[in-house]
Amino acid sequence: xxxxxxxxxxxxxxxxxxxxxxxxxxxxxxxxxxxxxxxxxxxxxxxxxxxxxxxxxxxxxxxxxxxxxxxxxxxxxxxxxxxxxxxxxxxxxxxxxxxxxxxxxxxxxxxxxxxxxxxxxxxxxxxxxxxxxxxxxxxxxxxxxxxxxxxxxxxxxxxxxxxxxxxxxxxxxxxxxxxxxxxxxxxxxxxxxxxxxxxxxxxxxxxxxxxxxxxxxxxxxxxxxxx
Length: 227
Fold this sequence. Notes:
CATH architecture of the domain at 31-174: Orthogonal Bundle
Low-confidence stretches: none
CATH topology of the domain at 31-174: MetI-like fold
Shape: flat
Helix content: over 70%
CATH superfamily of the domain at 31-174: MetI-like
Structural class: mainly alpha
Number of helices: 9
Mean pLDDT: 87
């Protein structure tokens, strides 16, 4: 091992020819992340509302969903969906589809709890004021309650989005052409792991910094009228 490290020759020149491949991987990663985030936000809200429902069977099902999909790692979900379902019931998903499903199931469970906490934090007086104005239940929720809950939940939802960006790298184990998948292929071809994994770390860091900066701007706008 020591002899290998001593003999290792850095070849930073390969960064340039590999750059276009990495850009393709970035595009796939962003598509994978965006789709998983939209689905997780939507499904997470549905699960949270079911969890808060007064109908006990629905509440218990939502509770089981949350506990089940938070209990195991994304690595297991990806392999189970891509290989297990194909072998068990003959449904073959593409690597990207399997990745989106796994990321959505895992993160929607966490987002459901974020939503539930935020909805519970909205002052009960807001509900009463909306009812006194004659708002129906659906109108009251989407006009009064949910906007306030979303503002409360936003920082935690952003953190969950960042986790999706980072967790998307695990999907490379089933052969996706995302940023990590492309990097693994290039490492096998060029035999330059240090240089290429350094480059992929730079891309992930850049994506996270951009997302964090954009989220900070949005959060300031959401809170601009809050005393």
